[in-house]
Amino acid sequence: PGKVSKICCIGAGYVGGPTCAVIALKCPHITVTIVDVNQSRIDAWNDKDFKLPIYEPGLEDVVRGCRGRNLFFSTDVDKGIQEADLIFVSVNTPTKKSGVGAGFAADLNYVELATRRIAAVANSSKIVVEKSTVPCRTAESMRTILESNSKPNCRFDILSNPEFLAEGTAIGDLFKPDRVLIGSLQTPEGKAACDALTEVYANWVSKDRILTVGLWSSELSKLAANAMLAQRISSVNALSAICEATGANIDEVAHAVGFDSRVGPKFLKASVGFGGSCFQKDILNLVYLSESLHLPEVAAYWRQVVEMNEYQKRRFSKTVVDTLFNTITGKHIAVLGFAFKADTGDTRESASITLIRDFLNERANIKIYDPQVPHEQIWFDLAEACPNLPLESIKKSVTICPSALDACNQADALVIATEWKEFKEIDWEAVYTNMNKPAFVFDGRLILDVEKLKKIGFKVTVIGRGNVM
Ligand code: NAI
For the chain, what is the total number of helices (H) and then of strands (E)? Predict the structure, then answer.
Protein backbone atom coordinates (compact mmCIF):
# COMPACT_ATOMS: atom_id res chain seq x y z
CA PRO A 1 0.00 0.00 0.00
CA GLY A 2 1.19 3.48 -0.83
CA LYS A 3 0.10 6.81 0.60
CA VAL A 4 -3.43 7.07 1.93
CA SER A 5 -5.54 9.65 0.09
CA LYS A 6 -9.11 8.48 0.78
CA ILE A 7 -10.41 7.33 4.13
CA CYS A 8 -13.82 5.88 4.92
CA CYS A 9 -15.04 5.43 8.47
CA ILE A 10 -17.90 2.99 9.11
CA GLY A 11 -19.80 4.19 12.20
CA ALA A 12 -20.55 7.88 12.85
CA GLY A 13 -20.77 7.61 16.64
CA TYR A 14 -18.86 9.02 19.61
CA VAL A 15 -15.62 7.56 18.29
CA GLY A 16 -15.91 7.51 14.48
CA GLY A 17 -17.30 11.07 14.26
CA PRO A 18 -14.73 13.01 16.32
CA THR A 19 -11.76 10.81 15.35
CA CYS A 20 -12.24 11.06 11.61
CA ALA A 21 -13.30 14.72 11.75
CA VAL A 22 -9.95 15.48 13.39
CA ILE A 23 -8.10 13.43 10.75
CA ALA A 24 -9.86 15.50 8.07
CA LEU A 25 -8.96 18.75 9.82
CA LYS A 26 -5.31 17.81 10.27
CA CYS A 27 -4.90 16.20 6.82
CA PRO A 28 -6.39 18.53 4.20
CA HIS A 29 -4.89 16.33 1.46
CA ILE A 30 -6.97 13.32 2.56
CA THR A 31 -10.67 12.97 1.74
CA VAL A 32 -12.56 11.53 4.71
CA THR A 33 -16.07 10.11 4.39
CA ILE A 34 -17.89 8.95 7.51
CA VAL A 35 -20.73 6.56 6.78
CA ASP A 36 -23.46 5.12 8.96
CA VAL A 37 -26.67 3.14 8.47
CA ASN A 38 -28.45 5.50 10.87
CA GLN A 39 -30.04 8.17 8.65
CA SER A 40 -30.99 10.57 11.43
CA ARG A 41 -27.45 10.49 12.83
CA ILE A 42 -25.99 11.32 9.41
CA ASP A 43 -28.59 14.07 8.92
CA ALA A 44 -27.52 15.59 12.25
CA TRP A 45 -23.84 15.50 11.26
CA ASN A 46 -24.85 17.36 8.08
CA ASP A 47 -27.14 19.80 9.90
CA LYS A 48 -26.83 23.27 8.43
CA ASP A 49 -26.89 24.90 11.87
CA PHE A 50 -24.33 22.38 13.18
CA LYS A 51 -26.70 20.79 15.69
CA LEU A 52 -24.49 17.70 15.75
CA PRO A 53 -25.69 14.31 17.07
CA ILE A 54 -23.23 14.30 19.96
CA TYR A 55 -22.17 17.00 22.39
CA GLU A 56 -18.42 17.31 22.73
CA PRO A 57 -16.58 20.57 23.53
CA GLY A 58 -14.67 21.85 20.47
CA LEU A 59 -16.23 19.36 18.05
CA GLU A 60 -18.36 21.91 16.25
CA ASP A 61 -15.31 24.02 15.37
CA VAL A 62 -13.54 20.98 13.94
CA VAL A 63 -16.54 20.03 11.79
CA ARG A 64 -17.03 23.65 10.66
CA GLY A 65 -13.36 23.68 9.69
CA CYS A 66 -13.57 20.88 7.14
CA ARG A 67 -17.11 19.67 6.41
CA GLY A 68 -17.79 19.99 2.70
CA ARG A 69 -14.06 20.54 2.07
CA ASN A 70 -12.54 17.10 2.71
CA LEU A 71 -14.97 15.77 5.32
CA PHE A 72 -18.27 14.18 4.28
CA PHE A 73 -21.04 12.32 6.07
CA SER A 74 -23.19 9.85 4.18
CA THR A 75 -25.46 6.82 4.45
CA ASP A 76 -24.01 5.40 1.25
CA VAL A 77 -21.85 2.81 2.98
CA ASP A 78 -21.00 0.88 -0.21
CA LYS A 79 -19.75 3.93 -2.09
CA GLY A 80 -17.71 4.98 0.93
CA ILE A 81 -16.07 1.54 1.02
CA GLN A 82 -15.42 1.41 -2.72
CA GLU A 83 -13.74 4.79 -2.94
CA ALA A 84 -11.47 4.47 0.09
CA ASP A 85 -8.00 3.05 0.35
CA LEU A 86 -8.20 2.89 4.13
CA ILE A 87 -11.35 1.98 6.10
CA PHE A 88 -11.88 2.45 9.82
CA VAL A 89 -14.41 0.09 11.37
CA SER A 90 -15.79 2.11 14.25
CA VAL A 91 -19.12 0.45 14.95
CA ASN A 92 -20.58 -0.33 18.36
CA THR A 93 -19.52 -3.45 20.27
CA PRO A 94 -21.98 -3.63 23.19
CA THR A 95 -22.12 -6.41 25.77
CA LYS A 96 -24.14 -9.37 24.51
CA LYS A 97 -27.65 -9.46 25.98
CA SER A 98 -28.42 -13.09 25.15
CA GLY A 99 -26.83 -16.30 23.96
CA VAL A 100 -23.35 -17.60 24.73
CA GLY A 101 -21.43 -15.19 26.96
CA ALA A 102 -24.55 -13.06 27.62
CA GLY A 103 -23.77 -10.28 30.09
CA PHE A 104 -20.01 -10.52 29.48
CA ALA A 105 -18.87 -11.11 25.92
CA ALA A 106 -18.80 -8.34 23.32
CA ASP A 107 -21.47 -8.51 20.65
CA LEU A 108 -19.41 -8.65 17.48
CA ASN A 109 -22.36 -8.78 15.14
CA TYR A 110 -21.93 -5.16 14.02
CA VAL A 111 -18.21 -5.60 13.40
CA GLU A 112 -18.87 -8.74 11.40
CA LEU A 113 -21.65 -7.17 9.33
CA ALA A 114 -19.44 -4.18 8.51
CA THR A 115 -16.56 -6.52 7.60
CA ARG A 116 -18.77 -8.65 5.36
CA ARG A 117 -20.01 -5.52 3.65
CA ILE A 118 -16.43 -4.48 2.91
CA ALA A 119 -15.70 -7.93 1.45
CA ALA A 120 -18.88 -7.87 -0.61
CA VAL A 121 -18.51 -4.48 -2.28
CA ALA A 122 -14.77 -3.68 -2.38
CA ASN A 123 -13.30 -3.85 -5.86
CA SER A 124 -9.79 -2.73 -5.02
CA SER A 125 -7.27 -3.42 -2.24
CA LYS A 126 -7.92 -1.85 1.17
CA ILE A 127 -6.32 -1.36 4.52
CA VAL A 128 -9.02 -2.24 7.05
CA VAL A 129 -8.51 -0.74 10.49
CA GLU A 130 -10.24 -2.09 13.55
CA LYS A 131 -11.07 1.03 15.59
CA SER A 132 -13.84 -0.45 17.72
CA THR A 133 -12.79 -2.03 21.01
CA VAL A 134 -12.86 -5.78 20.46
CA PRO A 135 -11.71 -8.95 22.19
CA CYS A 136 -8.30 -10.35 21.28
CA ARG A 137 -8.10 -12.09 17.95
CA THR A 138 -11.05 -10.29 16.36
CA ALA A 139 -8.67 -9.00 13.69
CA GLU A 140 -7.97 -12.61 12.81
CA SER A 141 -11.70 -13.27 12.29
CA MET A 142 -11.99 -10.12 10.19
CA ARG A 143 -9.08 -11.28 8.07
CA THR A 144 -10.64 -14.71 7.51
CA ILE A 145 -13.96 -13.15 6.49
CA LEU A 146 -12.30 -10.70 4.12
CA GLU A 147 -9.97 -13.23 2.54
CA SER A 148 -12.68 -15.85 2.05
CA ASN A 149 -14.93 -13.38 0.27
CA SER A 150 -12.61 -11.14 -1.69
CA LYS A 151 -12.50 -10.70 -5.44
CA PRO A 152 -9.33 -11.48 -7.39
CA ASN A 153 -6.78 -8.64 -7.22
CA CYS A 154 -8.25 -7.32 -3.94
CA ARG A 155 -5.92 -7.54 -0.97
CA PHE A 156 -6.89 -6.67 2.53
CA ASP A 157 -4.44 -5.70 5.22
CA ILE A 158 -5.85 -5.58 8.73
CA LEU A 159 -4.64 -3.18 11.41
CA SER A 160 -5.75 -2.69 14.97
CA ASN A 161 -5.84 0.96 16.04
CA PRO A 162 -7.82 1.23 19.28
CA GLU A 163 -9.07 4.64 20.31
CA PHE A 164 -8.08 6.10 23.67
CA LEU A 165 -10.07 9.35 23.59
CA ALA A 166 -12.24 10.13 26.59
CA GLU A 167 -15.68 11.62 26.05
CA GLY A 168 -15.86 15.21 27.29
CA THR A 169 -12.24 15.85 26.30
CA ALA A 170 -12.27 13.99 22.97
CA ILE A 171 -11.03 16.85 20.80
CA GLY A 172 -8.12 17.73 23.09
CA ASP A 173 -7.27 14.03 23.39
CA LEU A 174 -7.28 13.64 19.61
CA PHE A 175 -5.24 16.79 18.98
CA LYS A 176 -2.61 15.77 21.50
CA PRO A 177 -2.89 12.05 22.19
CA ASP A 178 -0.77 10.45 24.93
CA ARG A 179 -0.11 7.78 22.34
CA VAL A 180 -1.45 6.32 19.12
CA LEU A 181 -1.32 2.54 19.07
CA ILE A 182 -1.16 0.58 15.83
CA GLY A 183 -1.07 -3.21 15.74
CA SER A 184 -0.25 -5.16 12.61
CA LEU A 185 0.90 -8.55 11.45
CA GLN A 186 4.69 -8.63 11.51
CA THR A 187 4.87 -9.50 7.81
CA PRO A 188 6.28 -7.11 5.17
CA GLU A 189 2.70 -6.36 4.00
CA GLY A 190 1.46 -5.86 7.55
CA LYS A 191 4.32 -3.48 8.30
CA ALA A 192 3.71 -1.54 5.08
CA ALA A 193 0.05 -1.06 6.04
CA CYS A 194 1.18 0.04 9.50
CA ASP A 195 3.53 2.60 7.89
CA ALA A 196 0.70 3.96 5.75
CA LEU A 197 -1.50 4.60 8.81
CA THR A 198 1.48 5.97 10.77
CA GLU A 199 1.96 8.56 8.01
CA VAL A 200 -1.64 9.71 8.44
CA TYR A 201 -1.21 10.35 12.18
CA ALA A 202 2.28 11.80 11.67
CA ASN A 203 0.59 14.85 10.10
CA TRP A 204 0.05 16.10 13.65
CA VAL A 205 1.31 13.51 16.15
CA SER A 206 5.04 13.22 16.79
CA LYS A 207 6.42 9.84 15.79
CA ASP A 208 7.71 8.97 19.25
CA ARG A 209 4.09 8.86 20.40
CA ILE A 210 3.03 6.45 17.67
CA LEU A 211 3.55 2.94 19.05
CA THR A 212 3.59 0.01 16.68
CA VAL A 213 3.05 -3.50 18.06
CA GLY A 214 1.63 -6.87 17.09
CA LEU A 215 -2.10 -7.22 16.42
CA TRP A 216 -2.96 -9.14 19.58
CA SER A 217 -0.98 -6.82 21.84
CA SER A 218 -2.78 -3.87 20.35
CA GLU A 219 -6.22 -5.40 20.92
CA LEU A 220 -5.38 -6.45 24.47
CA SER A 221 -3.78 -3.08 25.33
CA LYS A 222 -7.10 -1.31 24.88
CA LEU A 223 -8.91 -3.69 27.24
CA ALA A 224 -5.99 -3.50 29.66
CA ALA A 225 -5.90 0.31 29.68
CA ASN A 226 -9.62 0.57 30.46
CA ALA A 227 -9.46 -2.19 33.06
CA MET A 228 -6.59 -0.47 34.88
CA LEU A 229 -8.25 2.96 34.75
CA ALA A 230 -11.50 1.56 36.13
CA GLN A 231 -9.55 -0.38 38.73
CA ARG A 232 -8.08 2.89 40.07
CA ILE A 233 -11.58 4.26 40.55
CA SER A 234 -12.83 1.11 42.25
CA SER A 235 -9.76 1.12 44.51
CA VAL A 236 -10.42 4.70 45.59
CA ASN A 237 -14.12 3.98 46.02
CA ALA A 238 -13.34 0.96 48.19
CA LEU A 239 -11.18 3.24 50.34
CA SER A 240 -13.99 5.81 50.47
CA ALA A 241 -16.13 3.27 52.33
CA ILE A 242 -13.37 2.91 54.93
CA CYS A 243 -13.12 6.69 55.19
CA GLU A 244 -16.82 7.01 55.92
CA ALA A 245 -16.58 4.40 58.63
CA THR A 246 -13.53 5.95 60.28
CA GLY A 247 -13.83 9.71 59.80
CA ALA A 248 -10.93 9.93 57.36
CA ASN A 249 -11.36 12.08 54.26
CA ILE A 250 -10.96 10.33 50.88
CA ASP A 251 -9.83 13.55 49.15
CA GLU A 252 -6.96 13.84 51.62
CA VAL A 253 -6.10 10.15 51.32
CA ALA A 254 -6.16 10.24 47.51
CA HIS A 255 -4.05 13.39 47.49
CA ALA A 256 -1.45 11.85 49.77
CA VAL A 257 -1.35 8.57 47.85
CA GLY A 258 -1.24 10.34 44.48
CA PHE A 259 1.84 12.28 45.52
CA ASP A 260 3.80 9.06 45.17
CA SER A 261 5.29 9.44 41.71
CA ARG A 262 4.74 5.75 41.06
CA VAL A 263 0.99 6.19 41.58
CA GLY A 264 0.47 9.70 40.23
CA PRO A 265 -2.38 12.11 41.02
CA LYS A 266 -4.79 11.56 38.13
CA PHE A 267 -7.95 9.47 38.16
CA LEU A 268 -8.06 9.10 41.93
CA LYS A 269 -11.32 10.92 42.57
CA ALA A 270 -13.85 9.04 44.64
CA SER A 271 -17.41 9.17 43.30
CA VAL A 272 -20.75 7.49 43.14
CA GLY A 273 -19.19 5.09 40.61
CA PHE A 274 -17.90 5.08 37.07
CA GLY A 275 -20.21 4.97 34.07
CA GLY A 276 -19.86 5.32 30.32
CA SER A 277 -20.17 2.86 27.52
CA CYS A 278 -16.67 1.44 27.85
CA PHE A 279 -15.29 0.64 31.30
CA GLN A 280 -17.81 -1.95 32.38
CA LYS A 281 -18.18 -3.45 28.93
CA ASP A 282 -14.46 -3.76 28.37
CA ILE A 283 -13.77 -5.28 31.78
CA LEU A 284 -16.57 -7.81 31.32
CA ASN A 285 -15.01 -8.56 27.99
CA LEU A 286 -11.66 -9.18 29.70
CA VAL A 287 -13.39 -11.36 32.30
CA TYR A 288 -14.98 -13.40 29.55
CA LEU A 289 -11.69 -13.70 27.73
CA SER A 290 -9.93 -14.86 30.91
CA GLU A 291 -12.60 -17.46 31.53
CA SER A 292 -12.44 -18.71 27.95
CA LEU A 293 -8.68 -19.09 28.41
CA HIS A 294 -9.23 -21.14 31.61
CA LEU A 295 -7.85 -18.43 33.88
CA PRO A 296 -10.58 -18.24 36.56
CA GLU A 297 -8.43 -16.36 39.13
CA VAL A 298 -7.66 -13.66 36.57
CA ALA A 299 -11.35 -13.43 35.67
CA ALA A 300 -12.36 -13.10 39.34
CA TYR A 301 -9.78 -10.37 39.91
CA TRP A 302 -11.12 -8.13 37.16
CA ARG A 303 -14.75 -8.94 37.85
CA GLN A 304 -14.31 -7.47 41.31
CA VAL A 305 -13.63 -4.04 39.76
CA VAL A 306 -17.16 -4.03 38.33
CA GLU A 307 -18.67 -5.46 41.49
CA MET A 308 -17.06 -2.73 43.60
CA ASN A 309 -18.62 -0.18 41.25
CA GLU A 310 -22.08 -1.70 41.69
CA TYR A 311 -21.52 -1.75 45.46
CA GLN A 312 -20.58 1.94 45.45
CA LYS A 313 -23.79 2.94 43.65
CA ARG A 314 -25.91 0.75 45.95
CA ARG A 315 -24.17 2.10 49.03
CA PHE A 316 -24.85 5.68 47.94
CA SER A 317 -28.59 5.12 47.35
CA LYS A 318 -28.81 3.43 50.72
CA THR A 319 -27.05 6.37 52.41
CA VAL A 320 -29.68 8.69 50.94
CA VAL A 321 -32.54 6.56 52.27
CA ASP A 322 -30.89 6.04 55.68
CA THR A 323 -30.15 9.73 56.10
CA LEU A 324 -33.70 10.77 55.25
CA PHE A 325 -34.92 8.87 58.34
CA ASN A 326 -35.10 5.52 56.55
CA THR A 327 -37.81 6.43 54.08
CA ILE A 328 -38.01 8.49 50.94
CA THR A 329 -41.49 7.37 49.94
CA GLY A 330 -43.37 10.40 48.64
CA LYS A 331 -40.39 12.70 49.25
CA HIS A 332 -38.94 14.93 46.56
CA ILE A 333 -35.40 14.25 45.47
CA ALA A 334 -33.59 16.55 43.07
CA VAL A 335 -31.02 14.71 40.98
CA LEU A 336 -28.51 17.07 39.40
CA GLY A 337 -26.83 15.48 36.42
CA PHE A 338 -27.92 12.60 34.22
CA ALA A 339 -24.90 12.22 31.88
CA PHE A 340 -22.31 9.68 32.96
CA LYS A 341 -19.79 12.48 33.41
CA ALA A 342 -19.43 16.20 32.80
CA ASP A 343 -19.07 17.72 29.32
CA THR A 344 -20.91 14.98 27.49
CA GLY A 345 -24.54 14.26 26.70
CA ASP A 346 -23.83 10.52 26.78
CA THR A 347 -25.83 8.59 29.36
CA ARG A 348 -24.69 5.04 28.69
CA GLU A 349 -24.21 3.20 32.04
CA SER A 350 -24.59 6.51 33.89
CA ALA A 351 -24.58 6.13 37.69
CA SER A 352 -27.44 8.63 37.74
CA ILE A 353 -29.73 6.07 36.09
CA THR A 354 -29.04 3.49 38.79
CA LEU A 355 -29.65 6.02 41.57
CA ILE A 356 -32.93 7.19 40.08
CA ARG A 357 -34.05 3.59 39.59
CA ASP A 358 -33.31 2.89 43.27
CA PHE A 359 -35.19 6.04 44.33
CA LEU A 360 -38.17 5.09 42.14
CA ASN A 361 -38.23 1.65 43.74
CA GLU A 362 -38.52 3.49 47.10
CA ARG A 363 -41.47 5.38 45.57
CA ALA A 364 -39.84 8.79 45.80
CA ASN A 365 -40.66 11.73 43.50
CA ILE A 366 -37.72 12.82 41.40
CA LYS A 367 -36.81 16.02 39.65
CA ILE A 368 -33.95 15.80 37.20
CA TYR A 369 -31.80 18.51 35.69
CA ASP A 370 -28.95 17.98 33.22
CA PRO A 371 -27.57 20.72 30.97
CA GLN A 372 -27.01 18.46 27.93
CA VAL A 373 -29.01 15.25 27.93
CA PRO A 374 -32.10 15.39 25.67
CA HIS A 375 -35.37 14.67 27.47
CA GLU A 376 -36.28 11.73 25.21
CA GLN A 377 -32.99 10.11 26.17
CA ILE A 378 -33.84 10.39 29.87
CA TRP A 379 -37.25 8.76 29.35
CA PHE A 380 -35.68 6.06 27.22
CA ASP A 381 -33.03 5.24 29.83
CA LEU A 382 -35.45 5.21 32.76
CA ALA A 383 -37.89 2.97 30.91
CA GLU A 384 -35.05 0.57 30.15
CA ALA A 385 -33.77 0.65 33.74
CA CYS A 386 -37.21 0.03 35.27
CA PRO A 387 -38.79 -2.73 33.19
CA ASN A 388 -41.25 -3.35 36.04
CA LEU A 389 -42.72 0.16 35.75
CA PRO A 390 -44.79 1.36 32.78
CA LEU A 391 -43.49 4.64 31.32
CA GLU A 392 -46.70 6.46 32.34
CA SER A 393 -46.10 5.65 35.98
CA ILE A 394 -42.44 6.68 35.70
CA LYS A 395 -43.62 9.97 34.22
CA LYS A 396 -45.94 10.48 37.20
CA SER A 397 -42.99 10.28 39.61
CA VAL A 398 -40.31 12.02 37.54
CA THR A 399 -40.12 15.61 36.30
CA ILE A 400 -37.38 16.90 34.01
CA CYS A 401 -36.54 20.49 34.93
CA PRO A 402 -35.05 23.38 32.94
CA SER A 403 -32.55 24.39 35.63
CA ALA A 404 -30.89 23.18 38.82
CA LEU A 405 -32.84 25.76 40.79
CA ASP A 406 -36.15 24.47 39.40
CA ALA A 407 -35.22 20.90 40.27
CA CYS A 408 -34.43 21.84 43.86
CA ASN A 409 -37.62 23.77 44.45
CA GLN A 410 -39.60 22.10 47.31
CA ALA A 411 -37.13 19.22 47.38
CA ASP A 412 -36.30 17.30 50.54
CA ALA A 413 -32.89 16.33 49.27
CA LEU A 414 -30.59 17.07 46.38
CA VAL A 415 -28.10 14.67 44.92
CA ILE A 416 -25.10 15.63 42.78
CA ALA A 417 -24.78 12.76 40.30
CA THR A 418 -22.62 14.37 37.58
CA GLU A 419 -19.72 16.77 38.11
CA TRP A 420 -20.99 19.54 35.79
CA LYS A 421 -19.06 22.74 36.52
CA GLU A 422 -22.25 24.78 36.80
CA PHE A 423 -23.26 22.78 39.89
CA LYS A 424 -20.40 24.43 41.78
CA GLU A 425 -21.82 27.83 40.96
CA ILE A 426 -25.42 27.35 42.05
CA ASP A 427 -27.03 30.10 44.12
CA TRP A 428 -27.10 27.98 47.30
CA GLU A 429 -28.88 30.60 49.40
CA ALA A 430 -31.77 30.55 46.95
CA VAL A 431 -31.78 26.75 46.83
CA TYR A 432 -31.88 26.58 50.61
CA THR A 433 -34.78 29.03 50.90
CA ASN A 434 -36.89 26.97 48.50
CA MET A 435 -36.13 23.50 49.85
CA ASN A 436 -38.05 21.61 52.53
CA LYS A 437 -36.26 21.49 55.88
CA PRO A 438 -34.10 19.84 56.96
CA ALA A 439 -32.49 20.40 53.56
CA PHE A 440 -30.25 17.45 52.70
CA VAL A 441 -27.44 17.55 50.15
CA PHE A 442 -25.62 14.43 48.93
CA ASP A 443 -22.45 15.09 46.97
CA GLY A 444 -21.74 12.03 44.85
CA ARG A 445 -18.91 13.79 43.01
CA LEU A 446 -17.02 15.65 45.73
CA ILE A 447 -17.40 19.04 44.04
CA LEU A 448 -19.21 21.14 46.66
CA ASP A 449 -17.86 23.54 49.26
CA VAL A 450 -19.11 21.66 52.29
CA GLU A 451 -18.28 24.32 54.89
CA LYS A 452 -20.16 26.99 52.95
CA LEU A 453 -23.21 24.77 52.57
CA LYS A 454 -23.22 23.83 56.24
CA LYS A 455 -23.10 27.50 57.19
CA ILE A 456 -26.17 28.16 55.09
CA GLY A 457 -27.96 25.39 56.98
CA PHE A 458 -27.77 22.34 54.70
CA LYS A 459 -27.23 18.84 56.07
CA VAL A 460 -24.42 17.63 53.85
CA THR A 461 -23.29 14.07 53.14
CA VAL A 462 -20.19 13.52 51.00
CA ILE A 463 -18.81 10.24 49.71
CA GLY A 464 -15.69 9.25 51.58
CA ARG A 465 -16.12 11.48 54.64
CA GLY A 466 -17.30 10.47 58.07
CA ASN A 467 -19.80 12.69 59.90
CA VAL A 468 -19.84 15.84 57.81
CA MET A 469 -23.41 16.71 58.72
P1 NAI B 1 -21.80 4.47 18.84
O2 NAI B 1 -22.91 3.53 19.14
O3 NAI B 1 -21.88 5.90 19.25
O4 NAI B 1 -21.54 4.48 17.25
C5 NAI B 1 -21.50 3.34 16.45
C6 NAI B 1 -22.20 3.66 15.13
O7 NAI B 1 -21.97 2.58 14.23
C8 NAI B 1 -23.71 3.81 15.24
O9 NAI B 1 -24.09 5.09 14.79
C10 NAI B 1 -24.27 2.69 14.33
O11 NAI B 1 -25.43 3.10 13.62
C12 NAI B 1 -23.12 2.46 13.39
N13 NAI B 1 -23.13 1.14 12.75
C14 NAI B 1 -23.27 -0.07 13.35
N15 NAI B 1 -23.19 -1.05 12.43
C16 NAI B 1 -22.99 -0.47 11.22
C17 NAI B 1 -22.82 -0.95 9.90
N18 NAI B 1 -22.80 -2.27 9.64
N19 NAI B 1 -22.65 -0.07 8.89
C20 NAI B 1 -22.63 1.26 9.16
N21 NAI B 1 -22.78 1.79 10.39
C22 NAI B 1 -22.96 0.94 11.42
O23 NAI B 1 -20.48 3.79 19.46
P24 NAI B 1 -19.14 4.53 19.93
O25 NAI B 1 -19.27 5.05 21.31
O26 NAI B 1 -18.67 5.43 18.86
O27 NAI B 1 -18.16 3.28 20.03
C28 NAI B 1 -17.66 2.62 18.89
C29 NAI B 1 -16.53 1.69 19.31
O30 NAI B 1 -15.46 2.45 19.86
C31 NAI B 1 -16.92 0.68 20.38
O32 NAI B 1 -16.28 -0.52 20.12
C33 NAI B 1 -16.37 1.30 21.65
O34 NAI B 1 -16.03 0.32 22.60
C35 NAI B 1 -15.13 1.98 21.16
N36 NAI B 1 -14.67 3.12 21.97
C37 NAI B 1 -15.57 4.02 22.47
C38 NAI B 1 -15.13 5.11 23.20
C39 NAI B 1 -16.11 6.10 23.75
O40 NAI B 1 -15.70 6.95 24.54
N41 NAI B 1 -17.38 6.05 23.39
C42 NAI B 1 -13.71 5.35 23.45
C43 NAI B 1 -12.86 4.38 22.83
C44 NAI B 1 -13.35 3.31 22.14
Answer: 18, 14
Instruction: Tell me: do 59 and 144 sit in the same domain.
Output: yes
Q: Who lines ligand 1 at CB under 6 A?
A: 10-16, 35-38, 41, 77, 90-93, 110, 113-114, 132-133, 163, 165, 167, 277-278
Q: What is the ipTM of this complex?
A: 0.98
Boundary (domain end) residue, out of 205, 227, 258: 205
- What separation in Å is there between the alpha carbon of 259 and the centre of ligand 1? 37
Q: Give the domain CATH number at 13.
A: 3.40.50.720
- Confirm whether residue 41 is marked as ligand binding: yes
In total, how many domains does the chain have? 2
Which residue segment(s) compose the domain that 74 sits in? Answer: 6-205
Q: Select from 183, 205, 227 the last residue of a domain.
A: 205
- Tell me the CA–centroid distance for residue 59 and ligand 1, in Å: 17
Q: pLDDT tens digits for 185-201?
A: 999 999 999 999 999 99
Same domain, 297 and 192: no
Burial 243-277 (b: 16+ CB within 10 A, else e): bbeeebbbbebbeeebeeeeeeeeebbbbbbbbbb
Say whether 262 counts as a known binding-site residue: yes
Distance CA 205, CA 201 (A): 6
Q: Is 226 annotated as a binding residue?
A: yes
Range from 135-144, 299-308, 316-325, 417-426 carrying the lowest mean pLDDT: 135-144
State whether 180 and 258 are in the same domain.
no
Active-site positions? 278
CA 163 to chain centre: 12
